[in-house]
Design goal:
With about 80 residues, the chain is of the alpha+beta class. It has a single domain, classed as Hypothetical protein rpa1041 (Alpha-Beta Plaits, 2-Layer Sandwich). The chain has two helices and five strands. A five-stranded antiparallel sheet has the order 2-3-1-4-5, covered by helices on one side.
Length: about 80
């Protein structure tokens, strides 16, 4: 899983995880990496091939999020996609 949706609220992260799993998307709820933010937010990790359906579900369910990031695993850095 090389994409992350970052949330400020655990509530929003859990809602997103629920709706994404219902859609059959493989996701994992994880603490937001410190490389992205020092807050205590949560993130949902998913595969890049599911990015369009993730975007659609977040919009459809009106789930608030901070951003979507790509994991650059070789450097342990993250690039903001939207």
């Amino acid at each position: 899983m090389n994409r992350l949706v970052v949330f400020d609220s655990v509530h929003h992260a859990i809602r997103a995880e629920h709706f994404l799993q219902q859609a059959g998307i493989a996701v994992e709820l994880i603490p937001t990496p410190r490389e992205i933010t020092a807050s205590c937010g949560q993130s949902v990790a998913f595969n890049e091939t599911d990015i369009e359906i993730v975007r659609r579900i977040l919009d459809q369910e009106k789930i608030l999020f901070r951003g979507v990031y790509s994991s650059l695993s070789e450097t342990r850095r993250y690039e903001r996609l939207w």
